[in-house]
Amino acid sequence: MSRRWELRGRSCVLTLAEDPAGLVLLDWSPDGSATPVTEPSRPTPFLPEVDRTRHLLPAAGVRQLRGVDLQVSTTTGTPVRGTGLRLRSVEQDGRRIRAYHVDDTDTVGVTLEVTASADHDVLTSRVTVVNHGPAAVVLDRVHPGSWYVPVADGVTTVDYLSGAWSHEFTPTSATFGPGCFGIGSASGLTSHEFAPWLAVRSGEVTRSVLLQACSSWRLGVEVGHGDPWARVHGGLTDQIRLGPGERHTTPASHGLACHGDPAPHWHDFLRGLGRGLTAHHHPVVHNSWYATEFDVSVDQQVALARRAADLGAEVFVVDDGWFRGRTSDRSGLGDWQSDPVKFPDGLGPLVQAVTGLGMRFGLWVEPEAVNPDSDLYRAHPDWVHRGPHREPLLARHQLVLDFGRAEVVAWAKDWLRELLSSQPISYLKWDMNRAITDTTAAPASWALDHARGYLSVMAMLREEFPDVTVEACSGGGGRIDPTVLGLSDVVWTSDETGPRDRLAIQHGFTRVFPASVMSSWVTDMPDLVDTEPASLQFRCLVAMCGVMGIGTDLSAASPEELATIGSLVRRYRELRPTILGGRLRWHGRPADPACAVEYADATRTVLFAFRRAATGADLTVTTESGREVAVRWELADDCDLVVLDGS
Ligand code: GLA
Fold first, then answer.
1. Residues with CB under 6 A from ligand 1
2. Which of 87, 508, 18 is nearest to 5 (CA)?
3. Whose CA is nearest to atom 8 of ligand 1?
4. pLDDT tens across 471-525, in order?
5. How far apart are CA 71 and CA 84, in angstroms?
6. Which of 45, 102, 196, 558 has its CA 20 to 30 A from that of 574?
7. Which residues does residue 111 pair with via DSSP β-bridges, in sequence order?
8. Could you tell me whether strands 425-430 and 170-176 are parallel, antiparallel, or unpaired per DSSP bridges?
9. Are strands 247-249 and 253-259 parallel, antiparallel or unpaired?
10. Which helix (H) or strand (E) covers residue 294, if one does?
11. Is 461 helix (H, G, I), strand (E, B) or coil?
């Protein structure tokens, strides 16, 4: 190997070398100190060295036995599968390295770009492929490059987040010897089942990878027998057709190497993707869903809004049920005008009542969905994702509009523009409630095409309606990744609001994602799933751990309950800058008899403490700044809020 290259983040260092096929990882260290690794003795011809070479972009046609990030097939002329990648040049410009490759058939040019952030220890890798040939090629696989992590004694432990609808973000671990580990989604959405993140611990050092993956994706770890390094690889699963002269750039793969817990590093990095921690885009909302579901009327919403305003809510959001024909989940999706029966004079009177109370007004929308029982579907049955010769599958009585089609995206932009211009609407909850199951032809880039359409509408909202706060939702936390975080302000973490389950979900969520995007509402007891009693204070404190909202049916709440919620909303608004921007640290886990979560910045430390009252468990916390706090359980028997001034 010839030249060496070094890419430095805030403290991390990626050390690379060149070989004829591309850049090779020599080390990936949190602080520049060399990782102690014993390399195996030189392989024989039966154990090809190239398979042990840590190419950042391993390609089919170079590697012989192991997995690859790039496989290109030519479909015309003499079909060739694979890419004999040859490194042409490497350029470094401060914190960015670009490696330019060509393929030995002169068909494609391939650029690997890795950038380091000066403010974080996150590295970002992307790959661009350009078709220089005279005919179309198919990118069977194109991933944004691999990461390599040291493996001690052949055993790897991977931490990741698994789940299901209403149970997202469960911290999970897998330990394995030589072999492969994989997570992913084939649904066109990030999924409730796995977040596109994993971490590998090597002693004190943790290396973790987060993918931009708001469609179908896979993320895996591969370690060979006797190999001291595991390869972490992943990307979208689409196959992409490139016509002559066309190019494709992958979504990014982010890698973080740090000492200890990676969570605060990911929080800092991901907070930076948003548009600041303003109260405007992190407001206290009242959301109608749990109070009124589909049964929406002007009088009943105005009654809720009056109480919400009294309690200090800043935005009043009417969830599902406001649009034409939406009497249940069986009809209406696609017809995005206010329902003439529920709103005989349009949305105006309700919007005016809400804004007259000093709150902003918001609406729930699900632009990618359509019920067969809708005027939109009757007019455009061809607009949905569907396979040939087969009726598409229904889920929640709805189908998915193909956002890969320009006319569908144009339609969505048009009605959203019209809706947002028709009234002072400055909050949208964008939902997406089902997997994409029915697809058309090969090569299969439907998931990426759909995601691009979705992201282009989100980008239009940001550009043309900068005052509109966007809450991203997918039946809860089904589509959360760095791209979505870059175009939304908050995300609805889960449909589960039972307080103990929700606390567990928030514990898992904040392993990666920051509290500043974690929308969380206090709702009524009893919950369908989480039936263990919890005080109203407990439920409010769980919501205060992120971007607090109210989903309680305030019309049915007692004066005492209203007073409790109101005083905690006021407290939350005072403490909000620390909760959104402070350093978050868990003390124990929600499954423990007692636990706490701490938020600390230069001005104060905020501690939310929770316990199972029946256990009478004591809790003493040593804060980030080294102060010992014995929780006194003053707010309620099962929870407490402690605020310490100064850092
Ligand atoms: C999804 C969302 C909920 C609510 C309903 C409305 O389940 O996650 O918050 O908006 O849809 O139908």
1. 289, 319-320, 364, 431, 433, 473, 475-476, 492, 495
2. 18
3. 475
4. 999 999 999 999 999 999 999 999 999 999 999 999 999 999 999 999 999 999 7
5. 10
6. 558
7. 100, 128
8. unpaired
9. unpaired
10. none
11. helix
Query: Tens digit of pLDDT for each residue in 97-144?
Result: 999 999 988 889 999 999 999 999 999 999 999 999 999 999 999 999
DSSP, collapsed to helix, strand or coil, labels residue 107 as coil
- Judged against a pLDDT cut of 80, whether residue 647 lies above it is answered with no
Cα of 506 to ligand 1 centre, how many Å?
18
pTM: 0.97
Q: How confident is the model at residue 441 (pLDDT cuts 50, 70, 90)?
A: low
Of 185, 307, 373, which is closest to residue 558 (Cα–Cα)?
A: 307
Helix axes 559-581, 536-544, angle to 10 degrees: 30
Distance 496 CA to ligand 1 centre (A): 10
* Contacts of 238 by beta carbon, 8 Å cutoff, 6+ apart: 215, 216, 443, 444, 445, 446, 447, 448
Pick from 450, 451, 447: nearest CA to 237: 447
Element (H, E) at 504: helix 499-509
Taking the centre of ligand 1 as the mean of its atom positions, its distance from the CA of residue 495, in whole angstroms, is 7
Helices 559-581 and 298-311, axial angle in degrees (round to 10): 60
Pocket probe mutation, ligand 1, options 292, 294, 320, 427, max atoms within 8 Å of Cβ: 320
Q: Say how many Å lie between the CA of residue 432 and the centre of ligand 1.
A: 9
Chain centroid offset of residue 603 CA: 29
Best probe residue, ligand 1, of 364, 493, 502, 520 (max atoms within 8 Å of C-beta): 364
Please say if the pLDDT value at position 79 is more than 70.
no
**CA-based nearest residue to 365, from 302, 457, 464:** 457
